[in-house]
Specification:
heterodimer; A: mainly alpha; MetI-like fold; B: mainly alpha; D-Maltodextrin-Binding Protein, domain 2; 21 helices; 14 strands; transport (chain A)
Chain lengths: ~300, ~525
């Protein structure tokens, strides 16, 4: 035991800086959560008057708050599903491309949008999706009337979901491609000898071996289920689509942050963190119990 | 030394570095106050925000410039700036919560309320009474309501920094002149005229008739034609305060706008266009009518003239009512900043002296000071780098306009006494001579044959306006809803205009607004204003 400790001590010491950083920037600020239960006045600081659950009831009593939770879940769940399925499928397809140059080119091309900020993307999307934009001009060739992708409440969430998946799937693809290269080629050779074709190989070798990575990525993304993408939606929504497009973050932004209402913003932040924390824990346990995968 | 030992030492020293780095930031704050440098000079600490459009002479910046040197030389006051930030409000909130306040600083209304509640700012009543110049006191008389808003229980805690004047508030319908003349159309005298003009423009030039945006801020400017005053707190028949956007007059306006949308007058895509997208269509020459503020000439005017030439200029017209009169304008509370001093700060009189000096330079400097001194103090936006150390003359734009229009008429420039007047005059002359796009703003505001301030002056002189009843700090109960109450109205009104809901939906929207907190807000406002 002692010997093991001695052997590992340099590594533990090397951990110290990051542990200290996490402690300072992630744990000490926990103390600030008390302002969720106060009527915060910067002048009085943490000695502001206590108001119990008032900030929470104020937010939850807003008639439109339920709608924003629903919109958040709706969009983030579909974004999450798409964010898992699309990159896996794309990585599998790309993996079948034998020419290395083409493979790399595609890999890079789909990864590029990931680096653009939503502010820029929103500008492009507003133009592309406008009544005279490329998409509507193309659709008009088939006699389709111009569709307002960003101004129709029933379409708006799907515009968000699809564009978010499109923007983000390059990153997942890279991760899955990396996981694919780590699969032992010997397994495929054995499968070929047993007479398995491409499809069977994918089904019985590739996917099962990819599963730990998929589960890891899913569990990690579950922590974000209450973040339906503030950057994206804030830059693209408008009052006409509040009904289906307003999410918790954009709503709280308009309710609290713009007016420097720290208590309310903190209360909602705390609410979101607690829910997310539960979700991550549950999904982790489920992944272990049901599928038998452990991440840590 | 073996490999492991090296690693160990490295990691230990790294963590040590981190810890010292942290404790350093704690210590770095101690200020070495050299308050007394033997000359009896007074030192005042302040904080400020960046003013990016100012062009300083070489070597100067916001903490060290012609103004700070003037304080030192003329008044024997050292002004020290503890920090400069372009996230001023956030940084100031941090300073407030950590109780590291400078002696004097600028706050917004909600910060003023919080600071007074927390008993962190000084009562300036006496200092102001004793040391403020007659001119400065005159500013307070000129907008007594704003002056009152800086007081609590009769004591002055925040000196309002004031504004350029109510003359900048009336709104207009801006119409593209070459299109109007080409079709030989008369000036709009009623809402019907505006509608018909839009239809004729569309017939001739295609596209849609009127540029507005998703916030409805611009379309709402037209509501006064129906005697509705959206976004403003007004008195109802019983003398109680209520919100303008939920009055039945607004319903009439919306009914007409829904009709306009159906006819294609209102931009079919307005619901997804923000401010920039709206103005981009003006600059591209796609549309000829826009309800807008007095500063149309600055934005989008400059770009429009640069892109389409001087004939594409838009002129302002007073918004007419449905029955062909001039509509009553909405006037809002205009003071957003207050000067406050830390509770235990010394020398409030020094701050007031600086304020006196600023007012003197701006209003009386011409003729008394050397032109190059004035130019150095005021031109190239240097006039705006003083942060908390100024109060504006709430009549300045009004007086400026009178002088400029008289000078343009008579060619006699002797009445131009401030550098602001000279700027507006010179740019107006420049536009008349060379149609320089950069001068469009000043020209359309004050120098054009049809200019915004000329119409606005008429509105003020004839008292044809309603002032908001919420003249001062917004009650806390109202600000606790953020913009969510207005959002309910904007969302509902947009649906009505776009025809996805009928006009009767207006009553549902109002009901939703009341339930979401509107009723509480009405109550709070009435209570705060003693109704």
């Amino acid at each position: 035991m002692l010997k093991k400790w001695k052997q590992q001590s340099p590594y533990h010491l090397m951990l110290i800086p990051s542990v200290v950083l996490v402690f300072i920037f992630s744990y000490i600020p926990f103390y600030g959560l008390i302002i969720a239960f106060q009527k915060y006045n910067p002048g009085l600081g943490f000695n502001s008057p206590w108001v119990g659950w008032d900030n929470f009831t104020h937010v939850f009593n807003q008639p439109n708050f339920v709608r924003t939770i629903w919109n958040t879940l709706y969009m983030s769940i579909f974004k999450m599903l798409g964010g898992i399925v699309v990159p896996v499928v794309f990585a599998l397809l790309l993996n079948e491309v034998l020419h290395n140059g083409i493979k790399r080119t595609f890999q890079t091309l789909v990864y590029i949008p990931n680096f653009l900020s939503w502010v820029i993307m929103a500008g492009i999307m507003l133009d592309v999706l406008s009544a005279n934009g490329i998409v509507n001009t193309f659709l008009s060739l088939f006699g389709v009337k111009p569709i307002s992708f960003l101004g129709t409440p029933s379409i708006f969430p799907w515009t968000m979901i699809v564009s978010d998946i499109w923007k983000g799937f390059g990153f997942g693809t890279v991760v899955y491609l990396a996981a694919l290269t780590s699969i032992d080629p010997g397994l495929y050779e054995a499968a070929v000898i047993d007479g398995a074709k491409r499809w069977k190989q994918t089904l019985y070798i590739t996917l099962p071996l990819l599963m730990p990575t998929i589960v890891l990525m899913s569990v990690l993304s579950l922590g974000n289920v209450l973040n339906a993408g503030f950057d994206q939606i804030y830059n693209l929504y408008s009052p006409v689509v509040y009904q289906t497009g307003d999410i918790i973050d954009t709503y709280v932004y308009r309710l609290g942050i713009q007016q420097a209402q720290y208590s309310i913003a903190t209360a909602v932040g705390l609410f979101k963190s607690v829910i997310s924390c539960i979700l991550v824990a549950v999904s982790y346990i489920l992944a272990y119990r049901v599928a038998g995968y452990r991440i840590f | 030394m073996n490999q492991k030992m090296k690693l160990l030492i490295m990691s230990v020293s790294m963590s040590a570095l981190l810890i010292t780095a942290c404790s350093d930031t704690g210590k770095g704050k101690t200020q070495t106050d050299a308050d007394d440098d033997g000359t009896g000079a007074v030192t005042i600490h302040t904080v400020t925000s960046e003013y990016s459009s100012a062009k300083y002479p070489k070597g100067d910046d916001i903490t060290n410039n012609v103004w700070t040197r003037r304080y030192k030389e003329k008044l024997n006051i050292n002004v020290k700036t503890d920090w400069v930030s372009d996230e001023y409000e956030t940084k100031l909130n941090l300073a407030i919560s950590s109780n590291e306040l400078p002696d004097v600083f600028r706050v917004n209304p909600s910060q003023l309320r919080q600071l007074v509640e927390a008993d962190m700012v000084m009562d300036l009543t006496e200092a102001f009474e004793q040391h403020a110049s007659e001119r400065l006191k005159g500013y307070m008389k000129a907008d007594a309501d704003s002056y009152e808003s800086g007081k609590k229980d009769g004591k002055l805690y925040g000196i309002p920094q004031m504004h350029w004047g109510l003359i900048e508030q009336p709104d207009f319908i801006w119409i593209r002149n070459d299109w109007k003349e080409e079709l030989k159309l008369q000036d709009p005298k009623s809402v019907e005229d505006i509608k018909n003009m839009a239809l004729k423009f569309m017939e001739k030039h295609g596209g849609y008739g009127m540029a507005v945006d998703q916030s409805l801020d611009y379309l709402n400017l037209l509501a006064i034609a129906w005697n509705a005053h959206p976004d403003m707190w007004i008195e109802d028949n019983s003398g109680k305060l209520t919100y303008g956007s939920i009055q039945p007059e607004m319903k009439n306006a919306l009914a007409e706008w829904a009709e306009w949308y159906k006819l294609g007058i209102i931009d079919p895509e307005f619901a997804i266009k923000d401010f920039n997208a709206m103005n981009a269509d003006i600059v591209a020459g796609k549309v000829g009518i826009q309800p807008y503020y007095q500063w149309w000439g600055y934005n989008p005017g400059v770009d429009t003239i640069a892109n389409l030439g001087k004939d594409a200029i838009f002129y302002p017209y007073l918004i007419p009512t449905v029955d062909g009169k001039e509509a009553k304008q909405s006037i809002f509370f205009a003071n957003n900043n207050y000067i406050v001093m830390k509770k235990d700060a010394a020398n409030p009189q020094a701050v007031i002296e600086i304020l006196n000096d600023y007012a003197y330079i701006v209003d009386e400097g011409n003729g008394k000071e050397k032109p190059e001194t004035l130019s150095a103090l005021l031109d190239n936006d240097i006039a705006h780098v003083v942060g908390a150390f100024r109060v504006l003359n709430p009549n300045s734009d009004y007086e400026q306009f009178e002088a400029v229009s008289k000078a343009l008429e008579t060619k006699d420039t002797s009445g131009l006494t401030t550098s602001g007047m000279w700027q507006k005059y010179n740019n107006s002359v420049e536009f008349i001579k060379n149609a320089t796009p950069g001068a469009t703003g000043d020209y359309l505001q004050q120098g054009a044959p049809k200019n915004a301030y000329g119409l606005a002056k008429k509105v003020l002189d004839s008292n044809n306006y309603i002032k908001t009843a919420l003249w001062g700090v917004t009650p806390e109960a109202l600000s606790s809803y953020g913009t969510t109450l207005d959002d309910i109205l904007t969302e509902g009104f947009t649906k009505i205009i776009m025809g996805s809901e009928s006009i009767d939906y207006f009553d549902v929207v109002v009901q939703n607004w009341r339930a979401a907190g509107g009723d509480n807000a009405i109550e709070a406002v009435n209570e705060a204003y003693g109704k």
